[in-house]
Amino acid sequence: MEILRLGLFLMLIEIEKNFTFFKIHGQGVDKKPEGILKIDEDTGDITVHGPVDFEKYNFLKLTFQALDREKHEVDTQLGIEILIVDANDNPPKFEPEGYEISIEGSTTQGTDVVTIKASDEDSIENNKLFDFRIVSVIPPPSELEFYLHQVKNIAIISFKGCLDYEKARKYTIEVEAKDHGDKIQLSSFCTIIIHIKDGNNYRPVITGQTGTGSVEERKENVLVKRLQVTDNDSKGTSAWKAKYRIQGDTNNNFRITTDLETNEGLLYVEKHLIYKDSHQKNLTISVENEIPYYSCTVLSRSTTDLWKVETTGDGVTGTEKLGLSTSRVTVTVVDVNDPPIFIIPHKHVIVIENEKPGKYLETFTATDPDGKTCVSFRYRIGDDPAHWVTVDSETGKVSTSKIIDRESNFVKNNIYKVTIWAVDNGQPPMTGTATLDLHVTDENDNVPILDVSTFDICHSDRLSLANITASDLDEDPYSGPFSFMLKDTEKGKWKLDPMQGYSVNLVKDPTVHSGHYELLLEVFDLQSNSAVYNLSITVCDCVDIAKPNCRIRKATGAKVAFEKNEKQISALVRKNVASDTTMEQRFARGNSMYRLLYSLDAGEQLGDYAPHVYAEEGDAKSKFELDAISIPDIPFDPDLDLDLDIQFNTLASICLPSENPPDST
């Protein structure tokens, strides 16, 4: 039993012996569910004092004891099992208890709208079986009837007739689930809210058009017409938004868009029109909505089957949809002065660079597309960045006006581009454009050039070298690979390895000491066109052999000459001069007893280095610390100069009065 009346007599246990009292233990007494059962200690009657939930306890297990009243000893002990009988105490439960959905207004009858589910926890067949039924629909439908189809513990809700957003935007349906209990039937309820989306129940209708309806020829992206429409569907919905189509636009000259605020159709000229091709363009504009049009009408009703209804939608026949609103639009093309057209708008000419000015190149001829005999042209140069060409304004004859240089920055990939204009005398004046490509062929008008002519080489017992690289602005076969040759060089001191290529190595013999050297290098291209370059070589003890740098601390510019006499070699400083090649040549040519030992180009960095007047005797011949020496301007014996030996590299600032200096400035 699942639900029992309190105090209900359950059973009587008879014992043959006349014992004094009885007791019970176990479920329903001192174990869960506690306090349900009690026993009369004198009579042995067991009574019920509370309900038992069948879904939790299908039976109760107890222990019965008969005890001697005097000895309080258990004489007899029995096991008792009490079966619980299920009662209809659980109503069906919906899972979940409520539903809320949205469906399109164009949904057809018989469509499954929503599926609901319920369950019953009772175990007896009648108690756990239940039926669904629709209790109410708010608002009451007129051309519509909701119904459900039950399959076991689920129900599928559908409808007959037609949905109409204009009549009801929402329906609230209450569904009951009731079980089959014998004495009492239990039930529960579920609420279902169905939102009806606005369908396209009304077609858009074109009511008018505004705008000039005209466009000048060759104009593009011009608005020529605005088409007005009405639509009774909800504003802003897909059922209200208009979508326009153009018929009769064979060349795709037009496009039409929708004004998102007003729903108007905006007709544009997308691609320019030509007056002589057609003075007018006749178009047909149709309009529809973003979603298909749909309508539904109830013709008759049935209690067993679906109702008889009539539906209308956007069907397709051929290429035109039936029932669409259309409007005829005429666009007028306005004639304007057309630009001249070149018969051949793009020409190519081969020209040799360095050719004398005045060479004839080409002749351009333009025509009037309007066909007017009174129109004349004048030819002009449009784009000529290097100003190399000229054009006859009457004939269109193009000639060179300057020497053309293939190596100019204006020549790209050996092509120099020129644009020619033909300007008519119409109103307004119009201009046509043609292009002339000059393909410039190369001549051997450039000598090889060195990328770098100043080098630092480390003083070493092994072979030391510097890399020399040459290039030529000319193309093959007037450029490299090049041939390199040293001129007037001490035999065996310097050499080239290899002697041909784009890059060669200048190799220093280990016997070459620290100092500055000037070498003459002649470089030949493949056609023996050559140039001679002065290589400025500085040999020094390097801080980093991998990165030769002999210019860390040097004077801004100085020349030192030595005088040779019969007694000794003494360092006689004649005059402090700025570095220049003229002075160097005068030392070399002016007096045979003088020769240039060291020269340093102006501009080398001295920084804030303070000149000093001392040197340690016995120091190495090459010494960075002696890169600037200052000597007092008071008279002194030149023989004192011997104390300096030959340890210095350069003299930065030396002021000394001298007599009979060499011919110099």
TrEMBL record:
PROSITE patterns: CADHERIN_1 (PS00232), CADHERIN_2 (PS50268). The gene is LOC115010980. Residues 22-94, 95-206, 216-342, 343-450, 465-550 form the Cadherin domain. This is Cadherin-4-like. It comes from the Eukaryota. The keyword Magnesium does not apply. GO terms for molecular function: beta-catenin binding; cadherin binding; calcium ion binding. Keywords: Calcium, Cell adhesion, Cell membrane, Cytoplasm, Glycoprotein, Membrane, Metal-binding, Repeat, Signal. Transmembrane segments: none annotated. GO terms for biological process: adherens junction organization; calcium-dependent cell-cell adhesion via plasma membrane cell adhesion molecules; cell migration; cell morphogenesis; cell-cell adhesion mediated by cadherin; cell-cell junction assembly; convergent extension involved in gastrulation; homophilic cell adhesion via plasma membrane adhesion molecules. It is found in: Cell membrane; Cytoplasm. The keyword Repeat applies. The lineage of its organism: Eukaryota, Metazoa, Chordata, Craniata, Vertebrata. Pfam families: Cadherin. One of its GO terms (cellular component) is cytoplasm. CDD domains: Cadherin_repeat.
